[in-house]
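Take a look at the protein record below and flag anything odd:
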Amino acid sequence: MMTLEQLGLLQRSQLEAWLAVTEETVDGVNRLIGLNLQAFKAGFGETGQCLHEAADAQDPGQWWSAQARYLQPAGERVSGYTRNLVEIGVQTQNAITRALQRHGDEVRRQWGFVTENFVDAAPPGAEAAIRFLKASVGLEVAAAEAAEEAVAEVSDAIAKDEASH
């Protein structure tokens, strides 16, 4: 029979995994918010300067010149923003993958203990229920491992793509 201590360990493992993933996600969102604020402040300041220069223009040549001075840095800002955005995304995804791998093993180990205890405590004639339980846990473990592999492969592919640029 499963003890309260084993149930507590299982719940603790699952909670720690969830907290680790949540912490990495919140960190990535905070970095993204910081990037957006920085980009907004820079763009707002440069747009104001461009508008003042365009409003002060005495002829169409000065107006076009003010626009041109604004467009080149704006294009560079967009390119830099995109690089930073992708970098934050890749780093956050890698951190989440590491957290899932680190905590996923413990959760799977705890589920193994739970399954063993149910099997040991099962009454005679419960073989079908035992097979169902083992199959369910096996599918959950296989799905978790497949998800971890998929996330790791995507992270690797993105990192390689970024390194080639």
User: Anything to note?
Assistant: The chain has a mean pLDDT of 82. The helical segments are 4-55, 60-121, 127-164. DSSP finds three helices and no strands in the chain.
